[in-house]
Amino acid sequence: MAKIKDLNMLLSLIGEGDAIAEINELWPAAMKTLLEMSDEQPRKTHKGSITLKIKVEVKDGVAEVGLEAEVKLPKRARRSTIFWISRNDGFLTNEHPSQIAMFDGNKPRTTIDGDPPVFDRTRAGGSTD
Question: Distance (Å, rounded) from C-alpha 37 to C-alpha 60?
Answer without folding.
Answer: 49
